[in-house]
Design brief:
Elements: E1 7-9, E2 15-17, E3 21-22, H1 33-45, E4 50-52, H2 61-69, E5 78-83, H3 90-104, E6 109-114, H4 122-134, E7 138-144, H5 148-156, E8 162-168, H6 180-186, E9 191-194, H7 206-215, H8 219-228, E10 233-235, H9 242-251, H10 258-267
Parallel strand pairs: 3-4, 4-5, 5-6, 6-7, 7-8, 8-9, 9-10
Antiparallel strand pairs: 1-2
Helix pairs in contact: 1-2, 1-9, 3-4, 7-8, 8-9
Length: 280
C-alpha cells in the first residue's frame, strides 16, 4: 500500500488529497473504456481518491466511466463534478445534478462546481446549490474558471459557502499567481489546478528536461511537483496509462530545490501584472 497522499482542507474543514485524478477526454470512445476504468482504479489503489469529472466530458460518458471505476469502493471516493452554465438555472442545476448522480451511480456528489460563469445570475445557481445541499445530493459546492472579479460577484450574490475554485494552472499558465492565487490562499480557499502538466509540449522544454534529469524523474513529474509545491493547491492530472498514473503518484514525493525553482522562474517567468484568466 502506498504512503498516504498529503491533504489540504476545504473551508468547511473537510480534508481532501492534494493529488487527484482528472477525467477530461474520458468516456469519448467505448474502445478505451476498460483502459480508462483500469487507470482510475489503479489511481485509487495508490491513494488518489479524489476524482474530478463533469457532465460535459464525453457528454456524460466520463461520469459513466467513473461509475464503473468506483464500483464497490464508493466510501473511499471524494467525487467532484460540474454543471454547465447553460443549465445553471435553479431548476436546471437540480436536474443536471440528478442526471449526473444517475450516471455516476451514487446518491451524492461530494463537491459540485459551476463549470464556468454564464448568463444565469449567480444568486440563482447558488440557491440551487444550497437546495441540493439541503437534500443531501451534494455535500459542498464550488466554481471553476472564476477570476478575482467573478469571485467578488459570487460573494455579493450570497456565495459565501464556496469551497474551491478550479482553474488552469501550470508552468506555462502562471497568471493566477499575480492576484487570484494569493487572494484565494489568503481566504483559505484551495485552488484546484486542472491541466497541471500542460498539454504535452512541456515534456520537451529544455529547462524542464534538465531538472527532470537531475532528479531522475520525467518532465511531467517535475511539472506536477512544481504545482504541488504550493500549499493549498490540489492538482487533478488526467492519465490513462498505468506508468503515467504511477509517475503522477510519485511526483508528490519529489522535492524541488531552490535552484530548481529559480531555473523555473527564469524559463517560465511569474506574472508581473494582471493577466486574463486562461481557460481551456
Amino acid at each position: 500500500m502506498a504512503d498516504r497522499i498529503p491533504t489540504t482542507s476545504l473551508p468547511s474543514g473537510v480534508s481532501v488529497p492534494v493529488l487527484g485524478q482528472g477525467t477530461w477526454r474520458m468516456g469519448e470512445d467505448a474502445r478505451r473504456r476498460a483502459e480508462e476504468v483500469a487507470a482510475l482504479r489503479l489511481g485509487l489503489d495508490l491513494g488518489m481518491t479524489l476524482i474530478d469529472t463533469a457532465e460535459m466530458y464525453g457528454s456524460g460518458g466520463a461520469e459513466e466511466v467513473v461509475r464503473e471505476a468506483i464500483d464497490g469502493r464508493r466510501q473511499e471516493i471524494f467525487l467532484v463534478s460540474k454543471v454547465l452554465p447553460s443549465k445553471a438555472s435553479h431548476s436546471g442545476t437540480i436536474r443536471a445534478c440528478e442526471a449526473s448522480l444517475k450516471r455516476l451511480g451514487t446518491d451524492r456528489i461530494e463537491l459540485y462546481l459551476l463549470h464556468w460563469r454564464g448568463r444565469v445570475p449567480l444568486a440563482e445557481t447558488v440557491a440551487a446549490f444550497e437546495t441540493l445541499k439541503s437534500q443531501g445530493k451534494i455535500l459542498h459546492w464550488g466554481v471553476s474558471n472564476f477570476d478575482v472579479d467573478d469571485m467578488a460577484d459570487l460573494a455579493a450574490a450570497g456565495g459565501t459557502s464556496v469551497e474551491t475554485n478550479q482553474v488552469l494552472y501550470n508552468l506555462q499558465a502562471r497568471g493566477i499567481e499575480f492576484d487570484l492565487l494569493p487572494k484565494s490562499l489568503a481566504d483559505d480557499l484551495p485552488i484546484m489546478a486542472y491541466s497541471p502538466v500542460g498539454q504535452g509540449d512541456l515534456a520537451r522544454q529544455p529547462t524542464l528536461v534538465e531538472i527532470a534529469r537531475r532528479h531522475g524523474a520525467t518532465a511531467a513529474q517535475v511539472a506536477l511537483a512544481w504545482v504541488l509545491r504550493q500549499p493549498g493547491v490540489i492538482a487533478i492530472p488526467k492519465a490513462s496509462r498505468p506508468e503515467h498514473i504511477r509517475q503522477n503518484r510519485a511526483a508528490v514525493d519529489l522535492q524541488l530545490s531552490a535552484e530548481d525553482l529559480a531555473q523555473f522562474d527564469a524559463a517560465f517567468p511569474p506574472p508581473r501584472r494582471k493577466q486574463p484568466l486562461e481557460v481551456i
